[in-house]
Design a protein that fits this description.
Elements lengths: L1 H9 L2 E4 L5 E7 L5 E2 L3 E7 L3 E5 L2 E5 L3 E5 L4 E6 L5 E8 L1 H11 L4 E2 L3 E2 L7 H4 L2 E3 L2 H15 L5 H29 L5 H20 L7 H7 L4 H12 L3 H19 L4 H7 L5 H12 L3 H9 L1
Antiparallel strand pairs: 1-2, 2-9, 3-8, 4-7, 4-9, 5-6, 5-8, 7-12, 10-11
Helix pairs in contact: 4-5, 5-6, 6-9
Length: 299
């Protein structure tokens, strides 16, 4: 146990750059209420946690990350009885404003206003995002550099900018592009509907291994069942049930990769009831069976 805590202590650090951006690595099990001092991107390594914001529960695992708005109060607890390595990037306001100035289009549109559809919208930022390969690669490189004692300011800023640019690409795909798919006349209406769909998505992430009732999902998103089904399909090109199945398969893939649990246990852990149905769905998505997938990784 002593060697464990020595290892944890050595891997904990806070780096504040000249730009006033902050990078933090720490181990968490159960936290007291916290407040995000700036816009914060939060990742986990070696475990999973639930980040609670009011009644919202954001499930954070290896395949996802969350973004918290400045001033948001939250608590974050490990989903198991083990410590979770939390890695977070906190963005200074001035740095974020400069970032928006660079990426926002310079041409004016109707009414002489700037095209706000390309800006980071505070109403939509705070949610869970899929950890795409490019973003994961950038975060892993930054963390490995810091874990190995790297402290060159220019190098850290370069890594930081890569992470931020990759986040904006994910934000554009997961938020802006989905908002444009919603067939409402006013952009403000699309923003509000997508905010509610984000609540539904968060609910599915947090409850993927349980029975998800469509009425409960719609109630959590503050939408009627019919409105939820119609708008979710518009934004995500699939129904909530199809989204849930793909999420379960993705989590099963992680368990096959990172654990030695037998397939029948993984089936129950990710919320499937039938092993044969799980194998069929897994083969359809990944073009191989779960056992062959694991054996190839082990070879």
């Amino acid at each position: 146990m002593l060697s464990l805590f020595i290892t944890l202590f050595n891997m904990e650090y806070i780096k504040i750059l000249d730009s006033r951006n902050k990078i933090t690595s720490h181990y968490n099990w159960k936290s007291s209420p916290e407040t995000a001092t700036n816009l914060t991107m939060r990742f986990v390594f070696g475990g999973s946690e639930i980040c609670s914001i009011g009644r919202r529960r954001l499930s954070l695992q290896h395949d996802s990350f969350i973004v918290l708005n400045k001033g948001t109060q939250f608590t974050a607890n490990s989903e198991t009885d083990t410590f979770v390595n939390v890695f977070s990037l906190s963005l200074d306001d001035d740095f974020l404003n400069e970032f928006n100035d660079v990426l926002a289009p310079k041409d004016k549109i109707f009414g002489g206003k700037y095209d706000d559809e390309n800006l980071l919208q505070s109403e939509l930022i705070e949610t869970i995002y899929p950890l795409k390969p490019e973003m994961k690669h950038a975060i892993v490189l930054l963390k490995e550099y810091l874990d190995n004692g790297g402290d060159d300011e220019d190098m850290l800023n370069e890594y930081f900018c890569k992470c931020l640019l990759n986040y904006f690409r994910i934000y554009k795909e997961e938020i802006l592009n989905k908002a444009r798919k919603l067939n409402f006349l006013h952009y403000s209406t699309r923003i509000e509907i997508l905010r509610r769909l984000n609540l539904a998505k968060e609910y599915l992430y947090a409850n993927y291994n349980r029975n998800v009732n469509l009425d409960s999902l719609a109630d959590h998103a503050c939408l009627s069942v019919n409105h939820l089904l119609r708008t979710f399909k518009l934004a995500y090109n699939q129904s909530p049930h199809q989204f849930l199945i793909q999420l379960r398969l993705q989590r099963a893939q992680l368990l096959l990769t990172k654990t030695e649990y037998p397939v029948y246990e993984i089936v129950n852990m990710v919320g499937f009831k039938c092993t044969s149905s799980f194998i069929r769905l897994f083969r359809t998505r990944y073009k191989t069976t779960p056992l062959k997938y694991r054996n190839v990784l082990a070879a």
